[in-house]
Amino acid sequence: MSDISSEAPSFITRFRESDLWYNFKRSPGAMIAAFLTFVIVFGAIFANFVAPHNPFDLSTVDLFDGLLPPAWAEDGKATYLLGTDDQGRDVFSTILYGSRISLIVGFASVGLAAVLGITVGLIAGYSGGMVDSFLMRVADVQLSFPAILIALLIDGVARGIMPRDVHDELAVYVLVVAIGLSFWVQYARTVRSSVMVERNKEYVQAGQVIGLPDWIILIRHILPNVMGPVLVIATIQLALAIITEATLSFLGVGVPPTSPSLGTLIRIGNDYLFSGEWWITIFPGVALVVLVLSVNILGDWLRDALNPKLR
């Protein structure tokens, strides 16, 4: 008797045989956007090793090297590829370290918004009735205010509550909470709509018949079936969160100058833009645009790839 055994394909094998990977290979725009996003994220994560200088190490910063133009300019130095800012910090290195802060705030705030929005959407869509009406009215009220105003309000309240000497230390956490509480509504409304469709299907009714608790039905059975639209929203909102953080930092209510993000770097360079030191603000601005544009392109591609009507 022959022993017939077959191993289950690995996750990588299944992914390479999936429609998602097939669509990705056929989309040059998505491939370029993914490459640019990978380069920026890689440089931000490994900034300690990639950056030629540490802009936060005062022993390596020389004020006499301040406001140097890029290396290819007449007065530029080869050690400062994109020039220096007013404090003598290497612009290229500050972009790498600033991208790290922007990405941390972006991912953390999107994660917070997703957890809050998915929870509200699951409860509203599955419960229905007065609970659904109350939660959706709260969401409608928040939608009437721009996200940037809500973030400014939360940041202002936090500044009023916390002592001044600890605000700079907790500025990143305040930004994450402010942006996260501004973006949860889109998740809640999308998940609610999907749950209202899924709750009437046979597998949910079967779970109710055998006596499964509602929270198990929601988390184990309904949630995996509504994650497709959530991933698309998360990808698109990552770019919005980075833009919102940059806007708040540019207005001076975000990350402090001691640990600048891309928005803070643009604000610092804006003071020297009309005096001829254009590189201080232009290069961080270009990095921000490339990052946001790449993430948006990936979000658009993911939305189309997960849409069964476009297959």
Automatic annotation (TrEMBL):
Q: Does the keyword Transmembrane helix apply?
A: yes
User: Record's InterPro entries?
Assistant: BP-dependent_transpt_permease, MetI-like, MetI-like_sf, OppC_N
Keyword Cell membrane belongs to the record: yes
ABC transmembrane type-1 domain location, by residue?
99-299
For this protein, the record's Pfam families field holds:
BPD_transp_1, OppC_N
**Topology relative to the membrane:** Multi-pass membrane protein
Q: Which family does it belong to?
A: Belongs to the binding-protein-dependent transport system permease family.
Indicate what this protein is called per its UniProt record: ABC transporter permease
